[in-house]
Amino acid sequence: xxxxxGRCRANKGDIIMIKPGHAETVSSATAxxxxxxxxxxxxxxxxxxxPTFTLDTATxxxxxxxxxxxxxxxVVFSANFADIVSVFTLVAAKNLTVNxxxxxxxATNMNFLHVIDTGTVTADADxxxxxxxxxxxxxxxxxxxxxxxxxxxxxxxxxxxxITGAATADVAAMFTCATTKILTQMTCLRNSVQITGNAGSxxxxxxxxxxxxxxxxxxxxxxxxxxxxxxxxxxSNAGFGLFENRATAVGTAQGxxxxxxxx
Length: 263
Fold this sequence. Notes:
ten-stranded mixed β-sheet; nine-stranded parallel β-sheet; 28 strands; globular
């Protein structure tokens, strides 16, 4: 795939089709670079026949995204090393689209800590779209879906399924924002998430942030966790509009609105 990307021309509408059963290993931070703008990568096949990229050898193995307007669809990414920091590392990667991809563990104790890790430069990951994906990761060391190291805008994180064994104390299920970093104009809709979590967390179950100037809508998300003590959706008055988000720590009960309904 890296070779095929290198044969593309920037912003000419090139499409790379990956055949069913195709498999590669990615063993470093440079083995697979999405570095030509405007390229669409489409996996063909269904279920276990979909193209699979296995990240191994080092925690720093990742798919580096360093160009704008790239799309990837119907591909499986599998962790075959413990605590790989992230599937995708975004640097100058505006408008990355990830659709209908799976993120899984190759074997026990092999895991991704995050699916998305942004750079620290403001707006480098503007326009990120992750839709219809599944992150299925039983390892207890798993962390948040997205590590937000820079301020970014126009994210679309919709219709994903996240089921992880994340049990690290005070870990958010979906977003961990670095100090003072914010997400603006974001939509986060209809995601279904189950984490192990921590029974007395002081972090947000969904979002950890120290900022109050985020903007966007979080709505119709569902979260199963084990924190029956504090149950904090987010760690500050983050600024998002919150509508019909439900959570529960009880396996035999329906989720209830979290945070509480405005009176």
